[in-house]
From TrEMBL:
The lineage of its organism: Bacteria, Bacillati, Actinomycetota, Actinomycetes, Micrococcales. The chain crosses the membrane at residues 24-49, 61-78, 90-108, 114-136, 148-170, 176-198, 210-228, 234-256, 277-301, 307-327, 339-360, 366-392, 413-431, 443-462. This is MFS transporter. Keywords: Cell membrane, Membrane, Transmembrane, Transmembrane helix, Transport. It comes from Sinomonas terrae. Pfam families: MFS_1. It is found in: Cell membrane. It is a multi-pass membrane protein. Residues 23-465 form the Major facilitator superfamily (MFS) profile domain.
Length: 468
């Protein structure tokens, strides 16, 4: 890898131009790999539980170990990218992600798998902010920026559903370990090709906010752990309340620290825009509701309808197809209609799509489930790219890494917290041998999360309308 300089060198510019779209597509391929891993093992969870003897309450850590580390360290990853160079940080993250994907595939115990998943999340946290930062700082005009963000948003919103499909194929045709092994050749390809095709970005001097990183990650872990374990230990147990209190204290420490350090991990200025705050909150609730829906739907299809992992994965196919179709027209709609209005319509559609799932029973026609998946895909296609636009609007180029890290932090931590809430609700109402009772309660929780996303973006929009 070439050394990083204070400004973009002629050689790096030539490298970037020579790579052209090939380099961009490889970076996007890596981003897809990072997003896939949030759900690719989802379909394989029953097989993982049997092979490695996971308990029911601990099994969700296969998903949340990745999501919490990913979300908790994204701000640090974005800051490191600003300081040492985004391409360099991206490659370090991909290397760690690839190595621990191999370790996770070879895991022989629940502890080893969860640890490997957490270190995969660490690698993803270093790599992911650089992808979005490179898009936002290199687009020549607003139209190009919107098209690039549409591609990025399509990957972000389609990745979860594609992960379920790929996970089903790999689990049925090989075994669950290949849901992790598949990352190794992709990661190696990216590590070899990207340094030759993508130029480095300028470095910006500064220090790392270690206290902020520890507080953000520790607070996220404590809160998610409390929510997941609450059904086993009780919502008002000392263990649950104590863990929530520790999480809240660490988040308060984060807020206190960020206002006083010279180079904060979370820049307070980024939270002064009501529109950006609403977009961040909406993204957290949106992704939380969608990951929770995936978690519940997989169990409904496999446990209640007795689908194989392959058929379960293919059942989600309507979602990425509808998201892809929407991604082709959303950039033009953003320019004509406005990002906020699209998010409102998309969030409302997602609430409507989730409501029938709260009434699932053994006699439910699968056509109803398929219609809900299509509507969810359309709503995701309508919201992800506009939310990205709202979150990154008017951000200075030198703060692009921090802003993109904050946006993806809210996405990943929102997914982890949302999944923890819904999984706890499902477990609290679950009846052995009958998915529908606990499942309906879980889908109600996912519906409420989607309604919160709608409220988060409507608030700033109504405020702007009153001011106008």
């Amino acid at each position: 890898m070439s050394s990083v300089t204070a400004t973009r060198t002629p050689n790096s510019v030539t490298s970037s131009r020579r790579g052209g779209n090939t380099g961009l597509w490889l970076v996007m391929l890596a981003q897809l790999m990072l997003v896939l891993d949030a759900t690719v093992v989802n379909v394989a969870l029953p097989h993982i539980a049997t092979d490695l003897h996971f308990s029911r309450s601990d099994l969700s850590w296969v998903l949340n170990g990745y999501a919490v580390a990913f979300g908790g360290l994204l701000l640090l990853g974005g800051r490191i990218g600003d300081v040492v160079g985004r391409r360099r940080t991206f490659l370090i993250g991909v290397a760690a992600f690839t190595a621990f994907s191999l370790l996770g595939g070879l895991a022989t115990s629940p502890t080893l798998l969860v640890v490997a998943r957490a270190f995969q999340g660490l690698g993803a946290a270093f790599a992911a902010p650089s992808v979005l930062a490179l898009i936002t700082t290199n687009a020549p005009d607003e139209g190009s920026r919107n098209r690039a963000l549409a591609l990025f948003s399509a990957i972000a919103s389609m990745g979860g559903a594609i992960g379920l499909i790929l996970g089903g194929v790999l689990t049925d045709t090989a075994n669950w370990r290949w849901t992790l092994f598949i990352n190794v050749p992709i990661g190696l390809l990216v590590l070899v090709a990207v340094p030759r095709l993508v130029g480095e970005t300028p470095r910006r001097p500064g220090r790392f906010d270690v206290v902020g990183a520890v507080a953000a990650t520790g607070g996220a872990v404590a809160i998610v752990w409390a929510l997941i374990q609450a059904p086993d230990y009780g919502w008002f147990s000392t263990r649950t309340i104590g863990s929530l209190a520790i999480g809240a204290a660490l988040i308060a420490l984060l807020a206190f620290t960020e206002r006083r350090v010279a180079h904060p991990l979370l820049r307070p200025q980024l939270l002064r825009s009501p529109s950006r705050v609403g977009a961040l909150a909406a993204m957290a609730a949106t992704y939380g509701g969608m990951l929770a829906m995936f978690f519940l739907m997989v169990q409904y299809l496999e446990d209640q309808l007795h689908f194989t992992p392959l058929v379960t994965g293919l059942a989600f196919l309507p979602m990425p197809l509808s998201i892809f179709a929407m991604s082709r027209i959303i950039p033009r709609l953003v320019e004509r209609v406005g990002a906020a209005r699209l998010v409102i319509v998309g969030a409302a559609l997602r609430v409507i799509a989730f409501l029938p799932l709260t009434q699932l029973n053994p006699q439910t026609n699968f056509a109803l489930v398929a219609a809900a998946l299509v509507a969810t895909g359309i709503s995701a296609g309508m919201t992800f790219m506009p939310l990205t636009t709202l979150a990154l609007r008017n951000v200075e180029p030198e703060h692009a890494g921090a802003a993109s890290g904050l946006f993806q932090t809210m996405q990943q931590l929102g997914g982890a917290v949302g999944l923890a809430i819904v999984a706890s609700t499902f477990a609290a109402f679950a009846v052995p041998g009958d998915f529908t009772i606990g499942g309906r309660a879980g889908f109600w929780a996912a519906t409420i999360l989607s309604a919160l996303a709608l409220a988060a973006v409507m608030g700033p929009a109504m405020r702007r309308q009153r001011e106008a």
